[in-house]
Design goal:
Elements (H helix, E strand, L loop, with lengths): L4 H6 L4 E6 L3 H13 L5 E4 L15 E2 L4 H7 L5 H21 L2 H4 L6 E3 L4 H8 L2 H12 L5 E5 L8 E5 L3 E2 L2 H14 L3 E3 L6 E5 L2 E5 L5 E9 L15 E10 L10 E4 L4 E6 L3 E6 L17 H15 L6 E11 L6 E6 L2 E5 L5 H18 L2
Parallel strand pairs: 1-2, 1-11, 2-8, 4-13, 11-18
Antiparallel strand pairs: 3-7, 4-6, 5-6, 9-10, 10-11, 12-15, 12-16, 13-14, 14-15, 17-18
Helix pairs in contact: 2-8, 2-10, 4-7, 4-10
Length: about 375
């Protein structure tokens, strides 16, 4: 790299805190650290030209669990664990709203509906609705959150399960708002910085990035979710790719709110007044989609288009945009918030719920750093 003496010596500061990853967890961690350590030098580095992974590639659902998903979780987790999962999502959404404004991130509380294609599917969930509502009440303090009602999707089963507290937002505006606040707070955010390796020398981390350059930091914090295992020896992080598409404008579209099908594996919502976003369906090829490589999956995209045509809009779908996002799953649904070595921290494995829990993970990670500083 053709660097001058001045560029080599002075372009990058020595940071008190260096955060790797400019997604929702990395940015909220930086924001919280700037409040707790107002005189500290804080830097955020991001390998892409914009935040990659899932933070700006998600579907913009502000949700905390459907009946089908909660019942599925109860197959492998006890009640206490399930309540804790719902509670962390609910608490995270409250924290996100406290850090933003509905106008700035296009937060719209139009409710959410779990749809079913057959009476049998519906009955399996509706028969245990009272029980699930008790768990949600224990987690959120709100009684009778989910109610059965006639479905707003005409080509699905006639009844669905409606959650009036679900909302949607614009994930890019959310991230840009955090970036704006961090810039104002004097936090450096540097893009196109790929971490090749790092080592601790005396009391400083030396982080090797592009073209042999190094960035120095007293504390190193990985907020890299599904990509964390490329940088740190952390167990139980499994990358999972999600396919998403948005239609071209559809005339007379009456769809409003967020929708889930099949334990949340398929999800869709309106974008503005005339477009539909649909994503998920990785259960069709669960093994094949366990990858950290972005890319399309023809069979899954075909399924999503057919699902829209058959059950939602009843016309041929014209696609305007397709993409994939990488989330991190694992055996446990609890995020990893951990000190893994002296002055080395990780916040990862958000389980596809980055919007719901990301800002709270950032808050908790900053709290851990302060407590072990």
């Amino acid at each position: 790299m053709n660097l001058s003496f001045w560029e080599r010596e002075y372009w990058y500061d020595t940071y008190d805190f260096l955060i790797v990853g400019a997604g929702i967890v990395g940015l909220t961690t930086a924001l919280e650290l700037s409040h707790r350590f107002p005189n500290a030098k804080i830097g955020v580095i991001e390998r892409g030209a914009m935040p990659s992974g899932a933070s700006t590639k998600n579907a913009g659902f502000a949700c905390f669990g459907t009946v089908g998903e909660i019942l599925d979780d109860l197959e492998t987790c006890n009640e206490t664990e399930v309540i804790s999962t719902i509670s962390s999502r609910w608490q995270g959404l409250q924290r996100l709203q406290s850090l933003t404004s509905a106008y700035d991130i296009q937060y719209k509380n139009d409710g959410g509906e779990e749809i079913f294609l057959t009476e049998e599917e519906y009955t399996l969930c509706s028969d245990r609705l009272s029980y699930v509502n008790r768990l949600i009440h224990a987690a959120t303090g709100v009684p009778e959150v989910i109610k059965s009602r006639h479905s707003t999707i005409k080509n699905a089963y006639k009844y669905g399960l409606y959650n009036s507290l679900e909302a949607q937002l614009n994930p890019v505006l959310m991230i840009k708002l955090f970036i704006s606040r961090l810039t104002h707070a004097g936090v450096d955010i540097i893009y196109n910085m790929h971490v090749n390796e790092y080592e601790r020398i005396e009391d400083m981390y030396h982080v090797a990035v592009n073209d042999g350059m190094q960035i120095m930091a007293k504390h190193l914090i990985f907020c890299t979710n599904a990509f964390t295992r490329q940088l740190c020896d952390i167990d139980d992080i499994v990358p999972a790719r999600n396919q998403v598409l948005v239609t071209k404008p559809i005339s007379n579209l009456r769809l409003r709110g967020t929708y889930h099908y099949n334990k949340g594996y398929v999800y869709f919502r309106n974008i503005g007044d005339d477009r539909v976003l649909i994503g998920g369906a990785r259960h069709i090829d669960a093994q094949g989609e366990q990858t950290s490589e972005f890319g399309s999956h023809a069979e899954i995209l075909s399924y999503l288009k057919n699902f829209l045509s058959l059950h939602v809009v009843r016309e041929n779908i014209r696609v305007d945009c397709e993409w994939s996002g990488i989330i991190a799953t694992g055996i446990s649904k609890k995020p990893i918030i951990s000190k893994v070595a002296d002055r080395l921290y990780v916040g990862a494995r958000l389980g596809g719920m980055g919007v719901a829990i990301g800002s709270d993970v950032g808050y908790t990670l900053a709290q851990l750093i302060e407590e072990t500083y």
